[in-house]
Amino acid sequence: MLFGRFFFGRVGFSSYILFPFYLIHPKKIFIGSNVRIHHSLRCEVYDDGIVEIKDGVSIGHNCHISSCEDLIINCNVVISSNVFIGSLDHDLFENRDIPIMERVKKCKPTYIGHSVFIGTGAVILPGTHIGNNAVIGANTVVKGDISPYAVIK
C-alpha cells in the first residue's frame, strides 16, 4: 500500500487493506507490519481517539471499528468477518429528549491482547479488555475484562 504511508498515521512493512474501505481520520490509524485487512473495513476515529493495529493482525471482511479513545489491537490477533469493535458509545439513558446522535459520547479505552481469536459476528463493546490468547466465539457480545486464555461463547 504505497499511498498508505502518507494517508495513515503509520503503515508497517508488507501490510495491506483491500478495497473498498471507509475511513474517518485515517491519520489517527496506526498499522503495524504484516497486517492483512480484507474488503469493506469501516474505521472511524473521533476526538482524541486512536486506533493501533499491531504486527501480524488479520481482519476479515466487513469489520467495523469505531473509536473516540485508545483502541489497541495487539500482535497476531485474528478477527473474523462481520465483527464490531468499539471504544465509542452514546448516552442512552440520560437526556431522553435529545436525539441519540446528539447526546454526549462516552469514550472508554478498548484493548485486545496478543494472539486473540475473535469469531464471526462478535461485538466488542467499549471499555473491554481482552487478555492474551483468549478466544471470543462467533456472535458473542463481550463487555468488561476477559482473562488471558479465556474462551467466551
Written description of the protein model:
By secondary structure, this protein is mostly beta strands. It has one domain (4-152): UDP N-Acetylglucosamine Acyltransferase, domain 1 (3 Solenoid). It contains 1 helix and 22 strands. It has one helix at 4-7; strands spanning 10-11, 16-17, 21-24, 29-31, 36-37, 41-45, 50-53, 58-59, 64-67, 70-73, 78-79, 84-86, 88-90, 105-107, 110-112, 117-118, 123-124, 129-130, 135-136, 141-142, 145-146, 151-152. It has a 7-stranded parallel sheet with strand order 1-4-7-10-15-18-21. The chain is globular and about 50 Å long. The chain starts with a helix and ends with a strand. The model has no long low-confidence stretch (mean pLDDT 93).
Q: Would you identify the CATH H-level superfamily?
A: Hexapeptide repeat proteins
Strand content: 35-45%
Terminal residue distance: 36 Å
Overall shape = globular
Q: Largest sheet at a glance?
A: 7 strands, parallel
Total domain units:
1
The DSSP helix count reads 1
The spatial strand order of the largest sheet comes to 1-4-7-10-15-18-21
Secondary-structure element sequence? Answer: HEEEEEEEEEEEEEEEEEEEEEE
Radius of gyration: 15 Å
Percent helix range: under 10%
Outline:
With 153 residues, this protein is mostly beta strands. The chain has one helix spanning 4-7; strands at residues 10-11, 16-17, 21-24, 29-31, 36-37, 41-45, 50-53, 58-59, 64-67, 70-73, 78-79, 84-86, 88-90, 105-107, 110-112, 117-118, 123-124, 129-130, 135-136, 141-142, 145-146, 151-152. The chain has one domain (4-152): Hexapeptide repeat proteins (UDP N-Acetylglucosamine Acyltransferase, domain 1).
